[in-house]
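# step 3/5: fold
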Amino acid sequence: MATIASAAAQTPDKPVSIVLVHGAFVDASGWKSVYDILTHDGYEVLVVQNPTVTLDGDVEATRQVIARATKPVLLVGHSYGGAVITEAGTDPKVKSLVYIAALAPDAGESVFELATRPVPGESGPPLLPPDDGFIIVDPAKFPTAFAQDVDISVTGFMAVGQVPWGLGAVQPKLTKAAWNDKPVHWMLTTQDHMVSPTTQRFMATRAKAKLTEIHSSHAVMLSHPKEVAAFIEAAAADTH
């Protein structure tokens, strides 16, 4: 099921709606600080609550929210949310894509293929073996792997409150890749232990993205919300 949130009051001069799509193991509440800044600045901001059970389900949840936007859409994805926006972003209402510490498969490529791409000198995410078709991050390692620059009181809670990630989201191959045809902005997190910075750079280069680097963990919207909001607003200005 998709949920929607938008600012109660918006200034009429913002030409795009912003749709935020979260990634695996978390829910949409991680966007709260970024949402507050964007709505304060007058944007219509809509938030997708992905079930993260199947890729098709998450793409459909995102399309439902895109349909509710009152203006052309800037579609933003974090982490696995990047795969979701890659497929959902083919919607003609979507004018531009923003990837934040994200995965951006090509058509015929799965999230699994990119997430397990070997990178010498960089450790992969500390995932536990699948259990009944779902994956979680090792709770003991979650704080330092997912968000080492966020207070442990937050990341400790996130570790035990993880949303299991379905193999039905990880393994399917994408049928479309919106980044082949639409403008892309990419925020690369250089201290990321979940999505390799090297793999991020490969994907951003392949997508011909306008690239910005930030010294941050994977959970950049939590550790650097002002910078993330400014990055999204700059992408919105470019889209206009």
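# step 4/5: annotate
Residues 54 and 228 are 27 Å apart (CA to CA).
# step 5/5: archive (pending)
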